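Handout, page 2. Input:
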Amino acid sequence: MNAYTQQYQQNQILTASPEQILIMLYDGAIRFTRQAMMGIESGNSVMKVEGISRAMAIITEFANTLDHEIGGEIAANLDGLYHFMIRELIQANLNSDMDKLKVVEGLLVELRQTWGEAIVIAREEAVNQSAPTPQPPENYKPLTAAG
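Output:
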């Protein structure tokens, strides 16, 4: 990776909203899981281990940043899902198990899509709440049947 690419990526992260960073992290976890799968397919154990460890680091961060007080049941369910994925990644690493990586990849893709949709909905709701309700002008008189 050249210096310009690194600078671009760093700027992208520094200027991203928390929602954009979340999506970027999901994209990274998905990419690293796929890297691990490519490592297994090609017999490249370094690629496999690196992909799995990076995916695990991101998923672990997801679990560590859950707010259980605000998130309640949803946070608890996500916590369980993240820990399930970590266990699957550990097993995939130990046994070069492609099926376990596919399960994790599928869950990550689904969660990324769900978060993406939730972000769009939240933005739309914020725009609708901040937009003033149109009011007729002060001298407005509705038309009547008499004209």
